[in-house]
Give the backbone structure.
Amino acid sequence: MNADPTNPDPVKETETAGPAAPKPDTLNANETIMIRVHRYRWLIFALLASGYILVYFHRLCPAVLAVDLMRDLAAGGSVTGLLGAAYFYPYALMQLPAGLLSDSWGPRRTITVFFVVAAAGAVFLGMAPTVSWAIVGRTIVGIGAAMLFVPTLKILAEWFRKREFAYMTGLLLAMGGVGTLTATAPLVWLSSRMGWRSAFVLVGILTLVMAVLVGIFVRNRPADLGWPSPLEPSPGVDGAGNGLVVGMKRVLSSGPFWALAAWFFFDLGIFFSFAGLWGGPYLVHVYGMSRQETGRILAMLAFGLVAGAPLVSWLSDRVFRRRKPVLVICAAAMIVMTGLLAFQTDGIPVWGLYALFFLMTVCGNASCVIAFTMNKELFPIEIAGTATGLVNLFPFAGGAVYQPLQGYILERWGGGPGEGFSTAGYEAAFLALFITAFAAFGAALLTRETLEGP
């Protein structure tokens, strides 16, 4: 080896040239950490999605059990509507605290604590001796279940990139479809063997187990584990914008926010009143279906959500490359479907009922993927929890208004706990939903496009 006169020591030459050598190792270490981040976020998603299954079960189970509840608790249409809506009133009211707690207290702690509350409410509901106590139990369930969705979106916004958010929200709602499925035919099977009371107690225990798992494994952001964030750097808001009051003012002063809020209220008011409560009794009273056949048709709600949530996300991101057209098309489809219910109440063939319940979920519930993504894209991530919590108040306010309203209309046309409601009563009730669908369509037209073009 010829020595370099300026560096006579070959070893030192190697050492001098060496500092660049560890770079591949450093890159490998960073890549390894990012692999851990990407794997762990799917564990987090799996746990939160499993919790969302239980949220949807609690939300929609009265549709299958409504006839049994009316009989066992001696409840008329108005009271049964109030029992179903008892979940939605606190759920709507808790959306603002959900957003604020997600941004301040932290989403993991929020979910854990309130899922324990939901578990207690489910057990209380299963043991309720009268309809009044059942309403109390369902109210407690609504308070606890209200604190999962908004905190979950906050966590997803920290663990997944912006371009992945709509897809992940779609997957989350698709898992809600699994919850819808468990609240249909499987719940019929379970309640027929152990009774609806024991079924609620069992679900309460499962909710408690989920609360423990979330508390142990879920983390708000990768930094909580000492890992880097997978998010691209993005401009935030100024220091004042981080304040809860300032964040609320920023959201509430936005016109596009109110257009989305109106769409949520009317669209989900239709869906929750029909799919969440009165769709089941409609099949029994108008078509004379058994509980088993009713459960099979209601199961289409689950399939519609499982298939529809990824579908509308794909249409928005890949086909239209816009959010608003998908929302408007779904709103227009809701006019057609509620029109069929209102004007062909007892004339829809059985295969048509299967299709209607499926498409009602795709257009009336899965479309929420687009609306929630639009709402998120209107505001910076620092107030994502507050913005989502505020807008998420409106769908459940819609359910809280329309479920008892439908029960009141049905009762006005005759019928009660031991009789069932008339076809004319359902025609009148569904006519109210048909009119509401036009309001939802108008709100969809007023929304602002939030997805930048290719």
User: Anything to note?
Assistant: The domain at 45-222+243-446 is CATH 1.20.1250.20 (Growth Hormone; Chain: A;).
